[in-house]
Amino acid sequence: MPSVTRKSQTTRAARRAELRARLLEVVERLLAQGESFTEMSVERLVSEAGLSRSTFYVYFEDKGDLLSAWLGDIISQVAESTQQWYALSTDATRDDVRRALAHVVESYAPHTTLMAAVIDASAYDPSVREGVAEMMNRNVAGLRHHIREGQKAGFVDPKLLPQETAEWLAWMAERGIHQLIRTAKGKQLERLVDAYADIVWNTLYAPVLDAGRAAKGSDGRTRSSKRAA
Q1: Are 1 and 56 part of one and the same domain?
Q2: pLDDT tens per residue across span 128-149
Q3: CA 181 – CA 128 distance, rounded (Å)
């Protein structure tokens, strides 16, 4: 039988998750109304959520702790969403890149409102700032590994600096999703994903894959082999 302590810990974790979801719904609603997370007081949040201040502090140290708990889950979700991208290899096409990046955007887009609160809070809350740094470090590390492996396999431009290229692409995407995807819908969202795919394709893959395909004839032989024949 599970111990009383373990059962108590499970119950507390479930209650914390329930309250977190309830409070974050309030945060999202207030953000959508134009308020900034910095301006939201704990008193306002618990009042809107129908909770007491004492209940809030039983489960969370402060507003930053509330966001940090949520961010921990999102870090894993964002990492999982990139696996389709990082699985691309020598037969990748621009359409493959577009589909993979659309999946990343679709996974991230529902969270852009709360991510705005995270970015806001990271300016003054060390724990939130550490969470953002962890997320970005993981994003950069994953992309750097993909670039290095792609260079070894011959489908990523060998002239690129893996670390610096990964940093630029990861931070550009983070800012782009935060500033552009957050408010985009319909055709505008599609155009933004198209542009994102073009940037990644032309940066990482096109110098090698487009050049290699251009050197092949319709029957799969290189132009040089045709001439030799």
Answers
A1: yes
A2: 888 889 889 999 999 999 999 9
A3: 22
